[in-house]
Design brief:
Order of helices and strands: HH
Largest sheet: none
Distance between the termini: 31 Å
Number of helices: 2
Number of strands: 0
Helix content: 25-40%
Shape: flat
Strand content: under 5%
Length: 48
């Protein structure tokens, strides 16, 4: 699994116009849908 190696590349490609966040884990464990949604909400400022 990714350890975030491409985060700087993505940030560079966005010309720092968009916030780039990383949510990952090692060991091949796939995050659940609920974990991804919770992380997305956290990154975007919570429930609105």
């Amino acid at each position: 699994m990714s350890m975030g190696q491409m985060v700087p590349d993505v940030a560079y490609a966005c010309n720092d116009k968009n916030k780039v966040a990383f949510h990952g884990r090692t060991g091949g464990n796939v995050p659940t849908v609920d974990e991804v949604v919770a992380f997305g909400k956290e990154v975007m400022g919570g429930d609105k």
